[in-house]
Amino acid sequence: MPKRRKRREEATGASGEDFISALPDAILQVVLSLLPSDETMRTSVLSRRWRDLWKSTPALRVFRDSEKQWSAVNLNYFVNHLLMHRDRLPVDECEFSCYQYFPEEEDKLFQNAELWIHDIVSFFRARVLKVCIHTQNYYLPLYNRAFVSQRLMRLEFSYVILQYRNLDFSSCPALESLNLRSCTIHTDKILSQSLRNLSITHCYFELDSRARISAPCVVSLQLANISGRAPLVENMPSLVTAFVRSSRSSHDLCRYKGNYVDCDNHGCHGHYDGDGNNCVLLEGLSGATNLELISDPHVFIFRNDCKRCPTFSMLKTLLLNEWCEVADFGTLVCFLRHTPILEKLTIQLPLYKTRHRAVEIYESYNPTQEFMVSVSSSKMKIQAFDGSWSYVCHITFIWKLRSCFPKDEKYFGEMRELTKGCIPAILS
User: What's the distance, CA 144 to chain centroid?
Assistant: First the structure.
């Protein structure tokens, strides 16, 4: 018997039926859910057994990219047909990823998209929804249609315009993760009592007034490369890890004083506009254990927040960059006086300013006294990085801070001895 025929017989049972078709429907539906939905629907022609399996798969995936060149008309027809004929069973995951369209297709591409999202959330009760639908120049606009779902746990929007007076997820009590990427956000408030993970990256906050983020149960927060005015973060008592990075495209910079400070001019587009005596960002982040604050030095949002600096009673790990360099690290000193249990500090400095780009210090100190403590109670670490990172040492940081405190020759004598041979020029 030829080997090819033998293998074919081994792959079938005595009745000639293939082993895949012999699997239970539930397993076949899980397998089908890994495929794009258009390929799943094609399996209906395999046999009578497969005819309706696609209608109850636990996931819907609609993709259009450079390889799958659907027109906007064909996309609308397919998705409408898919949602109309699918069984009304709950969906574990739904993903729309449709781009590479030309601007003239905008109206046809967007005409039913908001209705699709509503049906997926409300009728098919998806647990996970991912949406990325846009043309070369335009984003998908979503208006004031409310999100109502008892099952929705994770929501991801990319290249979407969120035009909501309040982006309120109070009617989604199971929602734990919200990811907004490259979106335009036109809302007064983002509100959720259940969110645990919040990520807003490369987004533009369009309003002149600050949007407010009210999510008291958030454990992990990421605000990165935000354009427009930074949102005002309300208290997050459960916060563990936060990463905040502002960019030069932020509106939180002043046009009148060289961009580095807030001019206190209410007519300035970048006027600070905090919440009374509260901070814009730091007050809401004050419960974090691990915190990274990265900013273009022209953006003053962190420095102004430090004027009203709260106490970071749980903070153990802190990473800052050159924005804290101003006034002989005076902003940093103020910050550190409000971090009573800080264990690790990292400062990133650019190569064009100093050979020593980053600083790491492990230290315990009493915030009611001066910042510096005796060497015996400190643990210092010297590192080196390759490539775009220069030699790293804590000495530059300590030496620049020296001017902020009373002279202590005994302390600095001990420092010279401790760092002997590392960077002699700095200690001379």
Answer: 23
